[in-house]
Amino acid sequence: MLPREPLLRNGHLLAMSSIVNAVLGAVFWVFATHWYDDRTVGLNYATISAATLLSTIGQLNLSDFLVRFMPSAGRHTRHLVLVCYLASVLCSVLVSVGFLLLVPTLNPRLDFLLTPVTSMFFVAYTAAYAIFALQDGALTGLRHPGWVVAENMIFAVVKILLLAVGAALTLFAGILISWAGALVVALLVANAFLLRRAVPRHETEAPEAARPPRLVGYATADYVGSLFRMAAYSLLPLVVLNTLGPAQSAYYSLAWIVGYVPYLLATNMGSSLIVEAAHAPGQLAQHALRVLRHSALLMAAGAAAIIVAAPAFLAFFGPEYAEHGTTLLRLLALSALPNLLVSLAVDVARMRRKLRLVVGVQLALCVLVLGLSSVLLPVLGLTGGGVAWLVAQCLLALYLLVRRSRWLPQAAREKEE
């Protein structure tokens, strides 16, 4: 049963969306690993990871910007959404074209993307995925997390159906085609509701004095920080691909899908915290402690469940996934516990506009994860990636705990003590 308090209820709905998406995503990859060989799965997943990273670069972190400022955009809400959409599409096209030009140098294994048809497909997919992220931010900022759940379910179900069609036709790019087709359907459904109902209602209820936010400096700094975070998430599968090969990349990628679920709880509760604090800035300290205490219990239970059931989770993908990925998955689940504090500190600092801390923490995460992985993967194999995540998160959490006066509001610190 969902809590009545908006802070927790909306966070739970967003978490539900992520969990449903993760579960159905896992089902998708179960089918993919049975219908396609390990090499094809590894290459397709690496391609999707590259497109996800490029779309993150292209969307300029405007999804988080919309979560932060949609509540106060007032009668300029539609203009704000459309400007963000346009900027993200243009930038996504530029970065994806640049990536394709560099594929022969950066990752020759992805040279199948360089034919005219697949190149145009890749560019369009990257731009569309940027809009997919932005619409979630807009719906969250307008307090419609239920629609975030709905559109993610649509995306996941359509993706599985199209995967079956691709496998029946023995298409090498069937995995990519299924993602792209599902993306189109989800975009049409979500934006029909967002632009025709949610935005007009918000503009009608907004006060006359509402003005659009003009925070280019804020958006730029927040964007830089998000790039470092997403680089850690999205580049590591490519590092595994280049270091250990396509099959090991597939094992890492599917373990990450499961191990990332507890991370999503922290992200979603943080989004709810930002939206509620935007409506009531004076309650930021109270909301932060409420989220930390509530999420810690859920996080510990979820991490424990993953650690115990790791072999069973991975066995759904095939016995080789359980054999190679169990230790990695357990380390990833453990790393989600310190990540709760890291994620909360970044969200509170974002609300308080302490952007040096926002950028610094995410830069440190990127450097630690990629640096440690580059050293440990050749020595420990996939386990090295899990050790890198756990060590990086623990070091950052320890630093933020010791230096909590830099990000935690005074009222929260006094209550804590």
From TrEMBL:
Which controlled-vocabulary keywords does the entry list?
Answer: Cell membrane, Membrane, Transmembrane, Transmembrane helix
The answer to whether the entry has keyword Flavoprotein is: no
Please give, as recorded in its UniProt entry, the membrane topology of this protein: Multi-pass membrane protein
Listed transmembrane segments:
12-31, 43-67, 79-101, 113-134, 146-165, 171-194, 215-239, 251-275, 296-316, 328-346, 358-380, 386-402
Record keywords: Lipid metabolism included?
A: no
User: Could you name the Gene Ontology cellular component terms for this entry?
Assistant: plasma membrane
Query: Where does it localize?
Result: Cell membrane
Its domain of life?
A: Bacteria
Q: Can you say what this protein is called? A: Uncharacterized protein
